[in-house]
TrEMBL record:
Alphabetic keyword roster: Amino-acid biosynthesis, Aromatic amino acid biosynthesis, Cytoplasm, Isomerase, Lyase, Multifunctional enzyme, Phenylalanine biosynthesis
Cellular-component GO terms for this entry: cytoplasm
PROSITE patterns: ACT, CHORISMATE_MUT_2, PREPHENATE_DEHYDR_3
Name used for this protein in its record: Bifunctional chorismate mutase/prephenate dehydratase
Compartments, record wording: Cytoplasm
Natural source organism: Rheinheimera mesophila
Pfam family for this entry, one: CM_2
């Protein structure tokens, strides 16, 4: 068989695969309706386990190894769960309508740009992208009604919490309505033909610089140029057309600016992932069928054991905490505001009771939002069991 002919067959098989994936996605969306009608949760890990075991077995008979089949189905099932969650949430809170205006950091190609695309493809037919130069500008865009939503990075596995965003949340009336995680793969990007030994300037966002600090410490004679976003760094390098100037950012983003990859894996942590939050003017409800997270801030005061007492309230109501972060309160030196993420729905009886008690024993409590958890941990099966 000649190459063209084999490629035609591959293309035709791929077309069939896509059609099957689209059909599977539609079926998953119908499952969501059936589950709501029966008051069942969207995620059913027992079903996923049975499915994976049987698919691994079938795969083996077809010469496909267990790891390959598992990897593909983890992606398919994650998509299926997220599609169902978005549908159920849309029905509960009212769909967004065809057009959604979303504010984010940078322009096309920034990490926030990709996170925005990822989150809203399931939720809006058309996006109006409102690129901003600072976190403050992003929040203001929603507060003033210029944008419907904002996407903000809140923490990263290499650099930790993004304090500027935490501080903005203390004072805004916006609510957290969603979250997502996005892998951040930092690359060194420059114009074609750039030699590593000739680099004299690196352009990057301060968060990116923090996440690549180990790599950057190893360089000498290189000036760091702080940029508003990765897309800003790409634009500077594209404009300069100078082989001594490079940017750090994502490969996909760099490509949009015609930049070539000169190095990969620059982050301090191998698994460099950012968590983003989505904020809006109006709080949402989270369907009972979906795992929810609630984020609130509290000021306990400084009396001995105040924080322990507050956390004990959560324990007494069987509420698990995902994150506890403290930030200074502006104007009150050495006093701290605590940010708490819990795995609970604001509408749950236990959560309502816990918040009532926290309101009683602390000086200040403010709920920042209740939103669907998008942390779809993959179901792991023992491939040998099949
Ligand atoms: O069968 C279901 O209950 C589905 O929702 C479909 C599906 C899948 O995509 O196969 C998705 C999520 C569930 O956790 C289990 C399986």
């Amino acid at each position: 068989m000649d190459l063209d002919h084999i490629r035609q067959q591959i293309s035709s098989t791929d077309k069939d695969l896509l059609q099957l994936l689209a059909t599977r996605r539609q079926l998953a969306l119908s499952v969501a309706d059936a589950k709501l009608a029966q008051n069942k949760p969207i995620r059913d890990q027992k079903r996923e386990e049975e499915l994976l075991v049987s698919l691994i077995e079938r795969g083996k008979a077809l010469g496909l190894d267990a790891q390959y089949v598992t990897k593909i189905y983890h992606v398919i099932i994650e998509d299926s769960v997220l599609q169902q969650q978005a549908k159920v949430q849309g029905q509960l809170n009212g769909n967004n309508g065809p057009v959604c205006r979303v504010a984010f950091l940078g322009r096309q190609g920034s990490y926030s740009y990709w996170a925005t695309q990822k989150y809203f493809t399931r939720r809006a037919e058309k996006l109006i992208e409102i690129g901003c130069d600072s976190f403050n500008e992003i929040v203001q865009a929603v507060e003033t009604g210029h944008a419907d939503y904002a996407v903000l990075p809140i923490e990263n596995t290499s650099s930790g919490s993004i304090n500027e965003v935490y501080d903005l949340l203390q004072h805004t009336r916006l609510s957290i309505v969603g979250e997502l995680t996005h892998p951040i793969e930092h690359c060194l990007l420059g114009v074609e033909g750039t030699e590593l030994s000739k680099i004299r300037q690196i352009c990057a966002h301060p968060q990116v610089i923090a996440q690549c600090s180990n790599y950057l410490q190893g360089l000498s004679n290189v000036k760091i140029e702080y940029c508003d976003a990765s897309s800003d760094a790409f634009e500077r390098v594209r404009k300069a057309q100078d082989k001594s100037v490079v940017a750090i950012g994502g490969e996909e983003g760099g490509k949009l600016y015609g930049l070539a990859v000169l190095g990969r894996g620059l982050a301090n942590q191998k698994d460099n992932v950012s968590r983003f939050i989505v904020v809006a003017r109006k709080a949402i409800n989270v369907a009972k069928a979906i795992p929810a997270k609630t984020t609130f801030i509290m000021y306990t005061g400084q009396q001995p054991g105040a924080l322990v007492d507050a956390l004990t309230v959560l324990k007494q109501h069987g509420i698990s905490m995902g994150k506890l972060e403290s930030r200074p309160i502006p104007g009150n030196p050495w006093e701290e505001m605590f940010y708490v993420d819990v795995f609970a729905n604001l509408g749950d009886y236990a959560m309502t009771r816990a918040l009532d008690e926290l309101n009683r024993i602390t000086r200040f409590v403010k709920v920042l939002g209740c939103y669907p958890s998008e942390d779809i941990s993959p179901t792991i099966v023992n491939a040998d069991a099949s």
